Amino acid sequence: MKPVILTPEQIDLFNRQGYLVVEQLIYHEETEAYRKIYNAFLQGEIDAGANRSDLGIGLGDNKSVENITQIMWPSDFVPGILDKAYHQRALGIARQLQGADMSMDFDMLIDKAPHTNTPTPWHQDAAYWINMPDKRAVSCWLALDDATIDNGCMWYVPGSHLLPLRPHTSAGGKGGALRCEASESEGIGIGIAAGSCILHHGQTLHYSRGNSTGSHRRAYIINFRPADMIELERAQGFDHGRSGGAPLVHPETLSVRRSGQPAGPGQIGALCPDRRLCAGGPGPPARSAQGSGARGGGARSGRRAPRGR
Fold this sequence. Notes:
alpha+beta
């Protein structure tokens, strides 16, 4: 399994703008394999139970399909997936960007079905989480379909991760989505091909338009943070919906960030979902970077997507 080795320029770009595009993180045949797994979830062949929800309830008006399908912890339902290319390569990149102690906190699927036209509100991921003393966090957003402006590619506000977290409130629906004040005029829409990914910092402002096309926009997201911060989360009973559909938004994260609190006695879940993805676990071997635009090594500073998450 070939890992991705970032260049110093790519790491600097991530640090400055808060996101980084890596082209062709997984190969075509790997992309097809993940699509089959993803479709098994969407079609109910893999029953995610309470881990499946409509993140877009109240944000869209679709009655026959979910507005925005969210499935938490797909890796809990698919034996062996943590050993496959995506999780391993993403972990290696996360450690290069944010440190060798980065571990997988959770993974999730977010699908925008054809013609659902439901935007994901502007937000920062950190607004969903408890306040932690170590703010390092990175999400890897893997496109399993070509992501365009019209089907809901990611939009980012460059450098927003370097500023204070904006106040967040409920987006108004029952799906648990949060929102903050931001606009497309601040940001940039980034289209990427299927098999490519974008990594973004936990405090980087982002959003996506709804899907107005006749095809799905399937994304597979993995979040990474320091292993001791995962332990702190679990000790406070926060596991990103892993334990029987627990709340995905911590009740004290809304509007104004609270100060940190000591961990409680009731730890839920393990320190890390899988020791293979924990700090100190076996990391992927190294290979030379291929330069900008090459397989698994290319980064773009944020060119606008073709019209058309």
